Input
Amino acid sequence: MTPADPTNIRVILATDCGSTTTKAILIELVDGVYRQTHRGEAPTTVEAPFADVTLGVINAVTEVQELAGRRLVSGEGRILRPATATEGCDIYISTSSAGGGLQMMVAGVVREMTAESAKRAALGAGAIVMDVIASNDRRRPHEQIQRIRELRPDIMLISGGVDGGTTTHVVQIAELIAPAKPKPRFGSEYTLPIVYAGNRDAAPLVRNVIKEGFALTVVDNLRPVLERENLGPARDAIHDLFLEHVMAHAPGYDKLMMWTDAPIVPTPAAVGDILQTIASRQGINVVGVDIGGATTDVFSVFDSTFNRTVSANLGMSYSIANVCAEAGMANVLRWVPFDMDERELRNRVKNKMIRPTTIPQTLEALVFEQAVAREALRLAYAQHKEFATTLRGVQQQRTVGDTFSQDASGRTIVDSMKLGLLVASGGVLSHAPRMHQTAMMLVDAFEPEGFTTLAKDSIFMMPHLGVLAQVHPQASLEVFDRDCLIHLGACIAPRGAGKAGRPCFRFSIRTGDREESGEMLYGDLRLVPLGERETAIVIIDPERGFDCGGGPGKRVEREVRGGTVGMILDARGRPLVVPTARDASREMVERWGAALGLYPELAPLLTRHS
Amino acid sequence: MSSSLKGKGSAKRSIAAAVACAALFFPALAAGQAPAPPSGLTARDHSWDNGTRIDLQWTASADEATLRGYVVRRRSTVETNFSVVDIVPAGTNALTVGSLNREAGHLFRVTALGANSLESTPAATTAPVFPTMEWFDGTRVWFLFTLVLLCGSVVAFIVLARRGMPLTLRRIAGLEAVDDAVGRATEMGRPCLFIPGINDMNEIQTIAGLTILSRVAKTAAEYDAKLEVPTSKSLVMTAARETMQTAFLTAGRPEAYNPDSVYYVTDEQFGYVAYVQGLMVREKPAACFYMGSFFAESLILAETGNAIGAIQIAGTAQPAQLPFFVAACDYTLIGEEFFAASAYLSGEPDQLGSLKGQDVGKLLVGAGILLGVLGATAAALTGSAFIESLVNFFTGTMLT
Output
């Protein structure tokens, strides 16, 4: 696992071992620039009868090898290194979410303070948090012990107390875990790893309580003072334990770990890494979303603070019924521009749930699925906003001027006005027949304000690039910009509400060869063509009460990058209000769809329905 | 009515003066004939009043055209002489006499007053008339209307809240932060300190403070945090103990309640402050709550709490102390917010409905002040008699 000198790296092989599919990509130095050149995939082989993850890896790499015409796998079934002119690669890296990914349970003293920081650390390390145990979670001790016994986490994280703070509560938590003796998912001889990242004064006491049957690792307190989080040591410890304990006991991973030139990283952690790299390099705030069949992951980097949430019951296949139940069918249907029989819809939802791999066969089914996706994304983003907050329990500094505006701690740090880049991935977004549909799903669900760039991850390459960023940041960024992201365009949307048909903002767009200006009325949506490599200087003059980033009614001038869709001028106001009354919403959504050319084939269908 | 009586009183004085002057400077006039008397004088109890008024009515004198006015006199059954009640101008044939004793009967006489200051023979009531008190005073109809509106809105909101209508209250950061403050104390392994002011239980602010203590104590019980409540009045100590015990019981941790955590210090203002300050410096509580009536000690306590790095939440209705609390504390409940805490924290439909109903009342008062000010300003600027009459009606009739 000795990485090559970054200056001599020309060929990079990366794999992502997912639950069902193992994906491999090849990155090569082409004309002095790193580009992703080929990709291949094969079924994951972590489960019986194969029970060896490397078989799937070799199969996927073999496909790449055939496509690239470069020999990558040796006769003994090993990845060939180093690269020569015709064979092998310089470095090989991998991520993994096979077998359900990394599943963790976290504990802290106060649910909204250290327990939440622990949850943030676990999620940031790419884990799925199965439950949070806290002193104030309103469960009796026997209920907490029962819960710990029921769940079979891969790793547990205990936090609690600031340094020099409470020891009693922390020891109480340890005393819940020790007798519960939770069993790990993999391997009967495997001792459950526990990371302790709480009050340092309580560490010896915790050691006394948690002795046999556990592998206790003590790291720096993740909340040394209430005013600051220190999640790094806990995250690193989770990664190490993930490799040492969890991966080492998963079938074939011991072999895979020896092949890779950088530690195997849980897939979501790698996505988080690349988004943080992008946010820091470009100096922007980024939101990324990955909508899957069962869960939806939302990542955000606002003012250098990274947050990740996993909405466990929001997805497009296994969880589709839950999306409909949580959002309500009326909210789903408001995005559909024609009448649909609710009974038929319910059948459609249940079918999708029991046959998760089916894809829409008719235009009506596609429109409905994208309507569900809007609601799933909206709900996931709302959950993310609730989680990504300022730290609670922090002392406030006031002046007499604050008499009537006393802000509380625990405010969300997600500010759609400050959002610079919104990245989409996941089947329903990545594989939408038209890019316009992807862009519109993002705009409708996330309601970006001001100037926001929209992009999608072409082949869910972000995990690969996240790991690559650790070994070769330059290659990672070049591929991210050129091959990973498909720029959809930009959305320009002022914040505020008005009356339909009244002026919302005036715009002036200057590109190299043309100039365009006009006025947008409240409720309107317009698509201005702006190619993928084109940029334009856009001046927005919002009406009084509307804010496009410069303050209410203030002019804003920005350079905007185009994309495959173009520039979306959105005068529908923020927050976006779409009525659930069918007649009202149908007319609105039909008009917006026509403005963006979402479903050109839908016109005859609408005529038929009317 | 009272204003019209006052107006007639001044008219009476003017006419009397005129009569005196006429008699002095024109003795020839005084030597003429007395005018014809009024007739048919009736006296009836004024309806819908508080039993102090009687309505008089008479038929005008035959010499009405030359009269200066009518002189109205009254005596009660316990008096021997008639006294002048009023002198009303000619053309008037009715008068409401006020400020009467309802225990006695009253007799009236009305005489016509000629231009030569001679009075006619009187028209008189024969039987004494007793003013009687009705169950409702008609002059208070606007008061009733306002009362019904305010009480009605309170009742209506309570009914709506009970039926499940969501009543949203503005977010009060200070009350939301109670969990944060107690959580901070828990994480830091330090106690919470609650000061219920330095007044006794007869002070409404102390009672409001104890309502908030209930919430703080419940949270402390849930978080297993230590809460200390030093008091400066023995009655407050007893009430605070009851409050805390109930709160711990509600939280399902009655065994964690320690009555010694609520104790009496001293009645002396600065003795109490010195003790609390010493406690804060020694124990370094991570959360300090000041909820009640405070005076000079507000800044001393809040500054000490700030210096030891505690989250501080204050609540008082003492306007003079609010700036100190705002500057030194993390969160401050200001006046009404402090009193609304009970409804805010409990979320009970009855309390929420009551709060909403009171808001309607405040809205009406605000609207009334605004309309009155605008109307009076408009009347002064334009000189419009109509606007002035509206303002007079508003201030003289609706608001009395």
